[in-house]
Amino acid sequence: MISSRDMEIEIGHYILNPQQQSKESGKNYELHNADTCTHLPNKTHSLSLGHFNDCHLAMAEAKRRVPKWAELIDGCAWCCPKCHTD
Q1: pLDDT at site 7
Q2: Boundaries of every domain in the chain
Q3: Which of the 8 DSSP states describes residue 28?
Q4: 66-81 burial by CB neighbour count: b if 16+ within 10 A, else e?
Q5: 51 in helix, strand or coil?
Q6: What tens digit of pLDDT does each residue of 42-53 get?
């Protein structure tokens, strides 16, 4: 049975930071929910992906748009924890 918690929706405007993170931070490109995140990159370092119901859909769009970064895109630990990997 699927609970309402499993169906939690994280509707928002998602962005991708096109600046690769430092080696200490995993050398990835971070996905953020611009509507809720308190750790957003500078606006000049934001690729708008659009509005999505959750980070998984936004992640798929980011990987579709920038396939060469697909393996390096990661969700922000603060606003996209369901899409964040350690």
Answers
A1: 47
A2: 12-83
A3: -
A4: beeeeeebbbbeebbe
A5: strand
A6: 999 899 999 999
